[in-house]
Structure formats: structure tokens, C-alpha cells
Structure prediction request, 574 residues.
Amino acid sequence: MRLSRFHLATVKETPSDAEIVSHRLMLRAGMIRKLAAGIFTWTPLGLRVLRKVEVVVREEMQRAGAIELLMPSVQPRELWDETGRWQKFGGQLLKLKDRKEQEYCYGPTHEEVITDFARHELKSYRQLPVTFFQIQTKFRDEIRPRFGVMRAREFLMKDAYSFHLTADCLAREYRNMFDAYTRVFTRLGLRFRAVQADTGAIGGNASHEFHVLADSGEDAIAFSDASDFAANVELAEALAPAAPRPAPAAALTRVATPTQKTIAEAAGLLGVAPAQCVKTLLVRGRDGLVALCVRGDHEINEIKAAKLDELPGESVLASEAEIVAATGTRPGFLGPVGLAGNIPVIVDRSAAALADFVCGGNAEGTHYTGANWDRDARITRIVDLRKVVAGDPSPDGCGTLAIARGIEVGHVFQLGRSYAQAMGAAVLDETGQTQVMTMGCYGIGVSRIVAAAIEQNHDAAGILWPPAMAPWHVAVCPINPKSDPAVTAAAESLYADLNARGIETVLDDRGLRPGSMFADIELIGIPHRIVVSERGLAAGTFEYRARGESENRALGRDALLALIGGGNNMSIQG
Ligand code: ATP
Ligand code: MG
Prediction:
């Protein structure tokens, strides 16, 4: 490609409304342009990258045996009524009416359409198992579209759906898709983790999310440094400490902490570590208040708390008035010692392993030191109640947990029979009996991957594409070509040669000054830059620089072609 004939439209100013680096760089590089909130045009440059991702996703889906089709974006309401999701999907569903007042939605996902397809097309067990996929535009009316294409309203998704007779067969395909996803993200050169996910309300029985690790990610992920274990922090189990609780050694003593309401303040005054304190929160239970106790350096995990039998399905803090009525004291001085007998005391495993701890005195301006479970404070139940923290042992018994932030780029899910049941998608089995099929669904956020890759791969000058996603692999940059025909000729010949070798090359023949030309090429993240100059030609060399490095190398033509074309450290893909 000659840049003079391409629509490259980089922007110097940093866009003011872009909060994260990928959004800023995609705008500055001129990859996307906003049309409306969460709705973007992919410019020719952006589309080149998007297509690279699409190619890898399609190839790996096909390698895994999935068959491509293309379903409509606009879907009739009747299908969504069959599964009850016309109502249940909520505000994210963009609803439309045609001229006959018939209702439709713009597809946010395609379970209904594929299940309708399957109930018409699949009649016999002989057609199973089968996995269909498509790469298609979705629309979700997100409450807060933000971060550019990262959380857009219109976005490109690869969605796949598999159909089976048995749970075993579904589990095998789930594994197959899991492995295909692993290949996709590996080929794209991303640092990622497959994370156990909550199947939530949809009622499936296995689900993993694939997360690209990046500080701007919306999810916190706990993963082992020694095994494949990874889970959303909200779901990761906090194991009980290995050592048993020591015997009480100190006497229970009430101490004055007149203004020390937080753990940090009380621990500071008393000269103990927060890990030697017990933090008590009162929440609203099914009947009356419930006390939740964790170690002072830990935090209650509200998802775990919401699942407690004593709670009504959610964890809501009691108001100050409720707390005063139930305990006679205000929040800040609460503790398990001497708490009213009708309040259940649910204690986290780590807090339950403490002896001689500090806790609130249940009287204004006081704490206890030397407090001990059983002797001084009652325990109703010991449970896993806290968020895991870095350094905790991994729940699978291998290694230690680290915490990182992640961007969800893929999701595999064993759906089970719910959709097929609701929509009557059944086949005849080997004995001639009608059987409802069981299903899996598998999504990849194709457009989100582009932004996620930039979050992971950038520097002050711009984007550093992993080779598989680069819009071009090589940029040939002639210096002052207009005044020097030899430079032009050498650049043209090198450009032709690289293209002939199947290396995607762009020739910057726009006639810009070197500084502006280099800034653009760095901003848009081309992995290899070759400068053709009068001085270099005189010495018989080109100036080569790899994106991300700060040194130039003077290389002769053969050495250069061997370096770039030899594939020693790069993979050149379509
Ligand atoms: P999220 O929790 O980020 O909203 P989701 O759980 O709703 O995602 P799925 O329904 O599993 O997402 O969709 C499959 C994939 O589509 C996701 O893994 C994600 O990569 C992508 N995706 C979902 N919503 C968006 C969006 N608003 N913009 C861009 N990509 C999205
Ligand atoms: Mg979502």
C-alpha cells in the first residue's frame, strides 16, 4: 500500500473525552471515528486491524470444526417471547417497529435465532454434534458505553452455538472450544487467562471467561503463580489458614479509643497490626440484623455474603439507626464480644483463626484487646466470607494467588437444555425417541480485542501491535524523495521486493518531513521501519528500527531482507 493513496488520518491532539489509552490511541491513529454514543466507524486503517483479528478467529473456529453461517441482525419479537427474554433482557435490547407495527429487536446475541434454525434444520441424532458460528455486528444499548470500542453499543462479535444429545458430548465440545479460544488469543500475541466464571441466572453448569490482562480492565482476577487456576476475585475461594487457632493467652481488656473508629486508627493507637483485629459489620438478615466478621486487613466479599442462608439474597448494610437500636452503640465500635444474643455471628475462616485479637467494645469510644472466640465471643458459623488478596494460597492447592485486572474478550458457556426446551428444538435419538437437545454457546468480542491489545501493547509514541494484528508489517520511509530520485528508486524497489515476498509493506510516499512521517509510523504501530536516505545509500545501507526499540541499525539490503523476510522473530500472516 502507498500511503499517498490510503486514507491515513492521524490526529495530533489528545482527545479530551477518551479516558483510557486504547481509546486515545485508536482516535489519534485514526482507526475509529465516533458517530454517536457507543457507535463507531472503522476507518480503513482500523478495519485492516479488525480484519486481522477476524481472520485468526475464523481460522481457529474452522480448525475446531465449527461451521460458519450468517444470521440476521434484526430479529422478530415472537422468538424472544418464546424464551421470555423480550422482557428479561431489559434495557439493553434495542427494540424496533416496522411499518406494519410488527416488533423486532436488533440482535444483542443469537440464542433465539440459532435455536429456531436448529429446530427446523436438525431432525436426527445423526446430524449431531454440530457447532455453528458467525462473525457479526451486535447491538446492546449499554447503560454506560465507554472506552471507545471496548464497551460500545454496536460491536463485532464472533458467536458460536453447539448442539448435542448428551451432557458428555457437550462437555467435549466445550473443551474443544476452550482449546480453540486458547489458540486464538495465543496467536494474537495477547497475555490472557481463562477464568472460572459465575454462570449466574442462566442456569448452565460450566462457564469460563477469557480475560486479557491489563490495568484498565473492569474485572479483578485472582490467579495462581504455579497453576492454571484463575477466577474472578468475587468468586475465588479464600482457604482457611493452615495453622489451628492458638490457645488464648491474654486477658480480655476494655481500652479507651475515643475517636478511633476505623481498624487502621484503632490498630495504630493500640500498636497492633490490622491482621490482629476483627472487623464487624451488621447487615440486614432475613429476620433481624446479622453480624459479619472478617480480619481487619480483609474485606467482606458481598457476593459470598449474599449467598448466606441468614441473608435475603443480598448483602445490605444496616443503617446507623438500626445498629443503635440493636446494639446500643454506633458503627465504629462494634464487635462480637457481648453482642446481643439474637444476632447471628458469621465469621470468616481467617478471622476465626485469630486468638487474643482486638475488636470493637460495643460501647462508644472503646475497643477490646485480648479477645478470644468461644471464651469471650460466640461464633454462629465459620464460612468463607472475604475477598481473596494477593499472597493467599491458591484454592487448587498449587501456588500463591496474584491479583490482576482483566478485560473480558471471550466467554464459553454450557447452556444446557433451557433454550431448546423453551423453543422445542428436539431430534430423534438412536431408538427413535424425540429428545430435546443440549447446547453450548461461545462468544468472542472481536472489536473489543483490538482495544484490549492496545491496552497491553503501547508506549509513549503510540501502539506496538503484536505481529498478527499489525495493519502492515513493514513501513518503507524515504527521506526527501522529491529532491532525490535515487532515494525514490531505492524505496520503490525495496517496497516491490518486500511485497513480492508476501510481506505486507506500506510505502510512506506522502512526502512528509521525517519527524512527522516517523511519528505517524510509530503511532500506528508498524513493527518494522526502514528508512531510505541519501546518506544510507552512499554507504550501501538502510536504517532499520524495530518498533519499541530506540536504536537504529544500518543494514545492507540482503541483511535487511534476511532479518525481515527470514521470519526469525516474527510471524507473517495474511
Ligand atoms: P460484559 O460483561 O463485558 O458486558 P458480557 O458478559 O455481556 O460482557 P457476552 O454476552 O458473553 O458478554 O458476549 C461475548 C463477548 O462479547 C464478551 O466476552 C465481550 O468480549 C464482547 N462484548 C460484550 N459486550 C460488549 C460491548 N458492549 N462492547 C464490545 N464488546 C462486547
Ligand atoms: Mg454485557
Summary: The longest helix spans residues 167-187. Confidence is low (pLDDT under 50) at residues 200-204, 567-574. The first strand starts at residue 32 and ends at 36.
